[in-house]
Amino acid sequence: MLYIFLLAFLFFSTSSLSHGSVLDFCVADYMAPEGPAGYSCKKLANVTVDDFVFTGLGVPGNTSNIFKAAVTLAVDAQFPGVNGLGISMARLDLAIGGVVPLHIHSGASEVIIVEQGTILAGFISAAANTVYMKTLNKGDIMVFPQGLLHFEVNTGWNSAIIFASFSSANPGLQIVDLALFANDLPSELVVKTTFLDYLQVKKLKAVFGGTG
């Protein structure tokens, strides 16, 4: 009986200490070194309400690029208040014909909601390479599971606005086109690994600024 009591006492004592040591938040300290777990916490005395407010998602992005698209991020690198909370957001602006090409977020699942326009969105499953895609209109939402290739294409006659929410303060991003053609990987290797034509690979490397 005494043994059980001691175990119970130890449990509640450690639980109480653990609960007391939990931080309400960990606002990112951009002046401190960044580690594998993310940003260090800003000293509480230096935290202000502005750390928990981000106004950039109300501003249209610049879509004057090859993708005719712009992504405005509100992740921990831009929005210190979400650091450590497991959430973040983004705004996607797509001009007519604009596209957010195949990409992945290795650290988060994503939910999008269409604020304006009509888009075609989808993802590819890793298990069977099944494509799940759907035309979405204003107010529609779609979820992209973590780590899976997905895309958005403006199929309407007007610009499109999409808001995205992530299950991480740092979802990560890798765009397939840039991964293949915006680096110094030798073109011969790109041809071997993608089965693309050599001249097409060289052309795409020139478009995206790659070498090799």
UniProtKB/TrEMBL annotation:
Q: Is Disulfide bond given among the entry's keywords?
A: yes
Which residues are the signal sequence here?
1-20
Which GO-annotated molecular functions does the record name?
manganese ion binding
Q: Where in the cell is it found?
A: Secreted, Extracellular space, Apoplast
Q: Name the major location.
A: secreted
Q: Which UniProt keywords apply?
A: Apoplast, Disulfide bond, Manganese, Metal-binding, Secreted, Signal
Q: Which Pfam families match?
A: Cupin_1
Which residues are involved in binding oxalate? H105, E110
Task: Mark the transmembrane ranges.
Answer: none
At which positions is Mn(2+) bound? H103, H105, E110, H150
Q: List the disulfide bonds.
A: C26-C41
Domain Cupin type-1 intervals: 55-202
Q: Origin, by domain of life?
A: Eukaryota
Q: Which InterPro entries match?
A: Cupin_1 (IPR006045), Germin (IPR001929), RmlC-like_jellyroll (IPR014710), RmlC_Cupin_sf (IPR011051)
Q: Name one GO cellular component term.
A: apoplast
Report the sequence similarity comment from the record.
Belongs to the germin family.
**Identification of the protein by name:** Germin-like protein
Organism expressing this protein natively: Protea cynaroides
Lineage in the entry?
Answer: Eukaryota, Viridiplantae, Streptophyta, Embryophyta, Tracheophyta
